[in-house]
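User: Thanks for the earlier help. One more: Fructose dehydrogenase cytochrome subunit. Can you show the sequence and predicted structure together?

Assistant: Of course, both are below.
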Amino acid sequence: MNASKPPTDRTHRAQRTRATLAAMLFCAFALYMAWHAAHDGESRPVDEMLLPAAHGEGPAAPDDAAARPELVKRGEYLARMGDCAACHTADASRPFAGGRAISTPFGKLYTPNITPDPDTGIGQWSDSDFMRAMHEGVGKGGERLYPAFPYVEFTRATEQDVLAIRAYLNTLAPIHYKPPANELRFPFNQRWLLMFWNLFNFDEGRFVPDPKKSAEYNRGAYLVKGLAHCEECHTPRNFMQGLKSGERFSGATQAGWQAYNITPDRAAGIGGWSDEALVSYLVTGVAVGHANAAGPMAEVVQNSTQYLSAEDQRSITAYLRGQRPVAGGVTRSRDSYGKPANDDVTTLRGATITSVNGAQLFVANCASCHNWTGAGVGASAPLAYPSLIHNSVTGAPSPSNLTMTILHGVQRQTKSADVLMPAFGSELSNDQVAAIANYVTKQFGDPRASITPDEVAALRAQPQ
Ligand code: HEC
Ligand code: HEC
Ligand code: HEC
C-alpha cells in the first residue's frame, strides 16, 4: 500500500486529467493496433470445438464418483502443465495460496490464493466462475484480470480440461491467507482499462485443431499454445505488452533472462537439436552439447515439463518442429561456439587476487566444477558439471543469461537429479562478475559478447 496523503481536490482533478489522457492514449493505441490487425493476415480461430481423438476419453462427468479420482489425477497433470503452482505459491509451506510478487513494467502484482479456502481463496467460486476466469480473464466479481495471469493462452483449454483442473484444486487443503494488495502505478491500477488491452491482445476462444495436421501435432499445439503457455516467455511483445503473433517463439526477455529463440531455425533457434535432445531438455533440464535450464526455465522444468507423458513429449516436439523458423539475422548457432582453454591458467591459482582479472577469478570461483579448460566434469552424466563450450548460454550474442547464472546460480530439482550451482551474487562485485563473464565468453563462447559492470548492476536489480 502506498501511504499517500488523503487526496485533495487538486489531486482529484490531476487524477481525472491523467485518466482522460490515459484513455485518449489507449484509444490512439487502439486505432493504431486496429490498423495493424487489419493489415495482418493471421487471425486466430474463435470456436467452441473440442479437441477430438488426441484427447482420449470423452467428457468427464464431474458428479460421477467413480470418474472422480481419474478426473482429479488428470487435473493434477494439467495443473502442472499450466504451472499454476509456480505463480500461485510464494512460500513452499503455503502451496497455491498466492502472494508471489509478479513484476510488470507497470508495478507489482501479487497472485491470488487459489486454494478452496472460502474467505481468502476460491472456495466460494462456482465452476462457471472458474471457467470464466480461465477462458475470459474475468474474476468472480466481473472485474477484468491482468494478463500476467496467462489467460491469453489458457482460453484455448477445453472446458473438460478446465473442469479437471478445478476438480484437482478442490482437493487441495484450504489455506487461510490473504495476499498483499497490488502495487500498480496509475493508470495501470484501473482494471477497466484492460478492456482496451483485451480488445487488441486477447482472442477469447478454444483451441481449434488443424485438420491438415496429425493428431500428434495438434495435441502439441493445444499444449504449447494453451496450458503450457511457452509463448508468455518465448514470444516478443509489442509496446502494449501483448504477444507479437508474427514473431512467435523467436525469443524475448523475462526478468533479466533471455528466453531464447525456440523456432526450428538451425542457427537462431533449435533446428540443430535432435528430438531426443529437446525432450531431454524439457524433462531433465539438460541437453548435452546444447543447453542447461537455469532461471525461469529451470522452474518450468521443475514444476511442469518434467512431468510430461511420453506421448505429450512427442507432441510438443512435433509441434515446435512445425513452426515457422525465424532467423533474425543470426547465422551461427549459440551452441556451436567455443573450444577448451589450452594455456594452463591454473598457475594463476596461487597468485593473490589483486585486481579484477577474469581468468584469475574464473580459476578461483568456477574451475573447481567447470574445469579450467571449461570442459566441465563428467559432462554427459546426470548431475555433471556442464561444459561451458557448446553451451547456448556462453555462445549467445548477449551474455545476460551467463551473468544471471553467475549472480543467481542454478537450482533445479527433478526426478532425475537435484542440480545446484551456488549463487555468486553476494560474493562478487559487479566488476568481478563482468570480468568473469567477459573471460568466459572470450574463452569458451561467442568472443563478441561482452558486458560492462553497469549492465551487470542493471541485471542484478531485476527482481527474480
Ligand atoms: C505466470 C503466472 C501465473 C500462472 C502460470 C498462473 N496464474 Fe493464475 N493468476 C496470476 C495472476 C498474476 C493473477 C491475478 C490477476 C489479477 O489480479 O488481475 C491470477 C489470477 C488467477 C485466478 C483469479 C483469482 C481471483 O481471486 O481473482 C484464478 C482462478 C487463477 N489465477 C487460476 C490459475 C490456474 C488454475 C493456473 C494454472 C492452470 C494459473 N492460475 C496459472 C498468475 C498466474
Ligand atoms: C517463465 C518463462 C518461460 C516459460 C513459460 C518457458 N520458457 Fe523456455 N526458456 C526460458 C528461459 C529464460 C530460457 C533460457 C534458460 C537458460 O539460459 O538457462 C529458456 C530456454 C528454453 C530452451 C533452450 C533454448 C536454448 O537454446 O538454450 C527451450 C528448448 C525451451 N526454453 C523450451 C520451452 C518450451 C517448450 C516451453 C513451454 C512448454 C517453455 N520453454 C516455456 C523461459 C521460459
Ligand atoms: C559447485 C560447482 C559449481 C561452481 C563452483 C560453478 N558452477 Fe556453474 N554450474 C554448476 C552446475 C551444477 C550447473 C548446472 C548443471 C545443469 O544444469 O545440469 C552449472 C551451470 C552453469 C552454466 C550453464 C547455465 C545455463 O543456463 O545453461 C554456466 C554458464 C555456468 N555454470 C558458469 C559458471 C561460472 C562462470 C562459475 C564461476 C563464477 C560457475 N559456473 C561456478 C556447478 C558449478
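User: Great, one quick takeaway?

Assistant: The radius of gyration is 24 Å.
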